[in-house]
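Final report, closing paragraph on structural work. Over the funding period we assembled a curated collection of sequence-structure pairs, and we close with a single example.
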Amino acid sequence: MEEKEVIPFSYRICTFSSSFNIENVVSNLKNSKECKISIQILNPALIVSKRHLAVAIHHTLQSFKVKRNVARDNSTEFLIRISGRRQISKALDLYGITHDSTNVLVLVFGGTEKENNESLSDFIQTMGLKELEKEKQKLPISSLEILTEFYDCSKNPDDLEKKALELMATIDVQ
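Its predicted structure, as stored:
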């Protein structure tokens, strides 16, 4: 990805609180699709870096710009892009949250930095999520062994990120 345009986005890694309700999340995400800001909640286990998120957002927005999008909305297209899978069900298998999920990553993009941060805070509060401490917000959250096995690469962090980005790029050639 050429680093010409910086696309603002915000994310937080959270845990569930006792007031968390997955049905509320689905309803809230559907409502967010009606505005310019996109919100995605996903399992962060296979995300290798902040750049991994940034490139997936870039590919998402580009796909709509050049009319090569697979999904009808930014949030679903993002899930497809970051997973490197054209089928939504396969993307959800990898990055979707379940009742067994421990951590979730809430991602907001499409607005200004301020709008994204405000939407992120509002969403976390509304959904009853609890942000992890600042030192636990760093990506990746999974061990190098898990990630290198999934991405089938060496344990070098640069190789890992490169492999994750290459997987996303395959969407356009499939």
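The radius of gyration is 15 Å. The first strand starts at residue 9 and ends at 16. We thank the funder for supporting this effort.
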